[in-house]
Amino acid sequence: MDLPILISDAKYAKELQKQYVLEDSLTSRNNALARREKLCCPNKRCSKLLILDPVEGIIKGICPSCKGPFCTQCRVPWHTGRDCDEFQKEEKDRENDIRVKLLAENRKWKNCPHCNSLVEKVDGCMQITCRCKEQFCYACGETWSERHWNC
Questions:
Q1: Domain-located, residue 66
Q2: HSE value, Cβ hemisphere, 13 Å, CA-based, for 64
Q3: What does the pLDDT look like over 20-30, one tens digit per residue?
Q4: What is the sign, positive or negative, of the torsion defined by CA atoms of 68, 72, 77, 81?
Q5: Please, which residues have CB within 8 angstroms of residue 47's CB and are 6 or more apart in sequence?
């Protein structure tokens, strides 16, 4: 009959301690990895997956693959000469301009040749009088003249 293997309480405690220390260190390491932010390099020719360790006050990052600078806060290639707030405002304005332009194209709106305001023709003839008092042809967009009767 085999006797069970016995170990001392001190030895058993030491083994348990090793096990818990190992588990705790793996858990904390996994938590630290989970807290890291993942992003793709914003430089169009690279787009490699990056793991970002955010450091307070540092917003200019360098991609280790393409060596291109990027803004860690805005997640875009580095915006030289502008802080993040200025850049984000300009981007929002640019996006809004693009949306208006697409809406104008979809609705077939025209620009006044004098003041560049968008004009929508609801009904009537092709002769449009803009709010700036410029008269133009809605079909071709040129300043109104007698030759536009057949345009």
A1: yes
A2: 5
A3: 555 555 555 55
A4: negative
A5: 40, 41
pLDDT of residue 150: 64
- How far from chain centre, in Å, is Cα 19? 44
Is residue 135 a part of any domain in this protein? yes
Number of separate domains in the chain: 2
Q: Which residues are catalytic?
A: 125
Helix (H, G, I), strand (E, B) or coil at 126: coil
**Residue 146, domain extent:** 110-151
Token output for 9: 């309480």
> How much is the pTM?
0.47
Distance CA 119, CA 111 (A): 6
132/113 Cα distance (integer angstroms) = 10
